[in-house]
Amino acid sequence: MFHEPVVNRLSYVFMVNGINITRSFGDLQVLKGINIDIHAGEILSIVGASGAGKTTLLQILGTLDKPTGGSICINGIDLSTLNDRQLAQFRNKHIGFVFQFHQLLPEFTALENVMMPALIAGTSRTSAMARSNELLGFLGLSHRTHHKPSQLSGGEKQRVAVARALINDPAVVFADEPSGNLDSHNQEELQVLFRRLREDFHQTFVIVTHDAHLATLSDRVVHMRDGLIVEG
Ligand SMILES: Nc1ncnc2c1ncn2[C@@H]1O[C@H](COP(=O)(O)OP(=O)(O)OP(=O)(O)O)[C@@H](O)[C@H]1O
């Protein structure tokens, strides 16, 4: 089981706390010293021109990539103190992801896709199924639980991906262009959904988006340019 080794008390004020994050790929410095604090229950959007470093930052904050320099605390845990196995456990338990392309497993039903991270975290099958059904119901998908991704619409698939991201009650959900592949009706639904989840469950979201409307519905918008936060 994952034991939380180092707790940074100061960072409890923030759900996510990044200090002077840098990331280079060879000679290319993509992140040039990012300082970012994200509060519990906040919906934060990250916007900026293509190539500004938004996805790179999201991947690093989400523990999918490691920074070249700087430090990150999530939910009071300093990520640099975790080895790879602990990091993977931490990610599964405390972080949810929603991507532009939902990345559901095609051979499993909606219900099974949502249950998966809970089963990996060691939750019993009965509890995982109960919670998955509850979430799918909350997202208006009770009638689609036994469908496979290929039998679902784009908006439904994305809502299943949101349910999967929420199954372990994560500290924070990172979403990379979550509405990028949806039509305007489903984009609107997703925006409403994020706000409901924030209001009903105090869920924290960090969203990279080109969708100006989604950004304006956030509590805060952070603008990136050329590897730096220039506003927000
Ligand atoms: N693995 C990598 N190796 C080399 N360069 C990379 C790698 N990942 C990203 N980059 C470069 O880092 C820069 C920032 O990329 P990133 O995907 O973070 O930008 P972005 O702001 O999310 O852009 P977009 O809005 O187009 O998705 C780009 O110049 C990109 O080519």
TrEMBL record:
Q: Name one GO molecular function term.
A: ATP hydrolysis activity
Which species is this UniProt entry from?
Answer: Breznakibacter xylanolyticus
- Protein family membership: Belongs to the ABC transporter superfamily. Macrolide exporter (TC 3.A.1.122) family.
The protein's matches in SMART domains, at most eight in alphabetical order, are given as: AAA (SM00382)
Nucleotide-binding as a keyword of this entry, yes or no, is yes
User: Record's PROSITE patterns?
Assistant: ABC_TRANSPORTER_1, ABC_TRANSPORTER_2
Which residues belong to any copy of the ABC transporter domain? 16-232
According to the UniProt record, one GO cellular component term is: membrane protein complex
Is ATP-binding there in the keyword field?
Answer: yes
Query: Which InterPro entries does this chain map to?
Result: AAA+_ATPase, ABC_transporter-like_ATP-bd, ABC_transporter-like_CS, ABC_transpr_LolD-like, MacB-like_ATP-bd, P-loop_NTPase
Q: Which UniProt keywords apply?
A: ATP-binding, Lipoprotein, Nucleotide-binding, Transport
Instruction: Specify the protein name.
Output: Lipoprotein-releasing system ATP-binding protein
